[in-house]
Amino acid sequence: MDILFHEVAGHTALARAIEHIGSPRFWRQVILLLRHWVPFDNALAIHFPAQGAPHVLEEYDAAPAPVAGELYLDGLYLLDPFYQAAREGLASGCYHLEEVAPDHFWQTDYYQNYFQNHVLVDEVQFLLQLPAGVLSLSLGMRRAFDATALGKLNLVNAWVLALLQQHWARSGQSLPVQPAVGDALARFGQGLLSERELEIARLILRGYSSKAMAQRLGISPETIKVHRRHLYAKLNISSHPELFSMFIRELGFSDDRGDSSV
User: How many Å apart are CA 251 and CA 185, to the nearest integer?
Assistant: First the structure.
């Protein structure tokens, strides 16, 4: 009997999500629908246009963090592995953090000083490629998603993406235009570093190891290490945390390590 009631509640939640396609309450209904099937601790719906700043569409059960929110929207999203994977052509679908993150992502300052405080420990995203941008629905957890949860999310992937597609077709054009922001990764180190060193600095910030960078760029790990030494020397730094701090300052924020909100 409990299973029957669970199924009835699930169908009711799905009906409500369909009913609210095109309305401001759509995102909350979809999030509640997904929570009916899989537990998670927070959710964020966001639109990444091809040009201009990201636009937050819905936040669910997230602790207020205005400084971190500004950081993310003003450029920290450029280190988001889901965003980068989508920008590089990842097909629409449901993806687990482990599928898209660089091999050293969990050692980066982005993960340890931003992600763990605001996204928590693990993340799954539904990504929908649009003609001019990407639509993302992120689910965050205080612990790792288990195989059952991941299986359920992949099972419902097709109709979640269909709902997002239909909702965007009805409401996407009505979003306010966000002012464009500069690409801090593109500006970072300009005038000091060579193009190759800039490329490697960006990959370091995103969490690529020397081996992974070498495979991506088609050069040897030893060459990567030489470039890393040179760019650290030119920037007068000696570690990844210092590189991350420079990137944060490029966004126009101070990097106060005594403040756990960053």
Answer: 10
Distance of alpha carbon 124 from alpha carbon 95, whole angstroms? 6
CB 33 within 8 A of CB 14: yes
Q: Per this entry, what is the length of the chain?
A: 262
Tens digits of residue pLDDT in 156-206: 999 999 999 999 999 865 665 555 555 666 676 777 889 899 999 999 999
Residue 163, φ and ψ in degrees, nearest 5: -60, -45
Q: Please give the Cα distance from 128 to 133 (Å, whole number).
A: 9
Whether 36 and 165 map to the same domain: the answer is yes
Residue 204 lies in a domain: yes
The residue with tokens 């679908």 is 93
Helices and strands per DSSP (H, E), number in the chain? 14, 5
Q: Alpha-carbon distance 213 to 219, whole Å?
A: 8
* 128 vs 61: CA distance, rounded Å: 23
Task: Give 102-150 pLDDT, tens digit per residue.
Answer: 999 999 999 988 888 877 899 999 999 998 899 999 999 989 999 999 9
- Are the C-beta atoms of 109 and 244 separated by less than 8 Å? yes
**At 65, phi and psi to the nearest 5?**
-150, 70
Predicted TM-score (pTM) of this structure: 0.83
Helix (H) or strand (E) holding 81: helix 81-87
Find the CATH number of the domain harbouring 125. 3.30.450.80
**Which of 150, 174, 198 marks a domain boundary?**
174
Alpha carbon distance 32, 45 (integer Å): 13
